[in-house]
Please model this.
Amino acid sequence: MTVPTHHPGDTLLIDYAGGALGEAASLIVATHLALCPCCRLNVAEMEAVGGALLESIEPEEVDPACLETVLARLDDLPPLPRVPRPKLVCQPAEVPLLPEPLRRYIGGDLSRLPWKRLMRGMDCYDIPLGSGSGYDSERRGKARLMRLASGVGPPHHTHRGIELTLVLDGGFTDDLGQFARGDLSVADDSVRHRPVADEEGCLCLAVTDAPLRFTGALGLILNPFVTF
Amino acid sequence: MQDLGSPAAGADRTFEELLTAVGRDRDRTAFAALFGHFAPRLKAYLRRQGCDAGGAEELVQDVMLLVWRRAETYDPSQASAATWMFTIARNRRIDALRREQRPEIDPADPTLVPDPVESADDGVAARETAGRLRAALRTLPPEQADLLRLAYFEDKPHSLISAEQGIPLGTVKSRLRLAMERLRKAMRDSQ
Model:
């Protein structure tokens, strides 16, 4: 099985490990992690950094009654049911195309999704995120599944904020090279890219995250590739 | 704070052993010792995420109850006790403060591309790694350590840190990368 050659990079992985990314960006990073053992190791190490930082933080005194309260509640709580995590002995003949955690957001059957046509050869499905209402949805970001036919590329566009694209099947090529399953493209407003789907077409997950949430930047994104 | 083995104050068991005892034996003494050490740190962490004192203490209780319920799944060969607590606290505050899910990999998913080699780490190695990491953290240049704390403690992606601190994005990225390279080297230099 091949491993990806285009990665999120340290800073994005630190944002993910520290928990600063919105849900959409976390979803695409975590789905990349499922396909990329090397970034998984990086994130495990970055979580260890989080543990070391937690150890080194200046502690704040906690009301002694807190421990009493917690101890009194322990008996009411059964341990969480143990989720069976069988070791995979061999690859099943038909590995589902969509890895977790993406699969739990959209199910395993692409043909059942209500695809929306954006232009000839380009369909999309907007992935519902989060259950909370009224929360800062700009911060959460937007996630969209894109299906491009061979040779199709979205009209030229630039970015407000950050755009992440993860190839799930097929591939595309842009100024930065060729992107295949598991490859993650990171584009910000400094990047002018013209992705074009490879011969076999391209299924990808595209996410926008508005880093400048206080300016309301996301609402102003005029991006044909991921205009929501 | 000691560097090897994260020994718990006033006890001869490490935090990793305490956590394992909670998972295996429902050991309340071990749990109380973990609470004594970690609750004040978790509170400080949650305060920096924007909780007021009361809200932070409530969330600390939530986190510690999750620790009790999930301790069975703790694997000392994978992570130090502090690292495991950090991930639980991080996910709980994303859920509580942002009302968002935390998407994570499923290690049992058949589409997961497996690790090339099984990790041979045992619990002792994980604790020693944590010790080297804490030592390396103390030697980071202040401008790198400060950014790292902002990134982990203030719920701000690096792009937002750049905008708020008035530090160019490229500088934020290179400082974080340099910090991570040093810490990674400390973690991987086992011999």
In short: The domain at 10-57+98-220 of chain A is CATH 2.60.120.10 (Jelly Rolls). Confidence is low (pLDDT under 50) at residues 85-91, 211-228 of chain A. Chain A has one domain: 10-57+98-220.
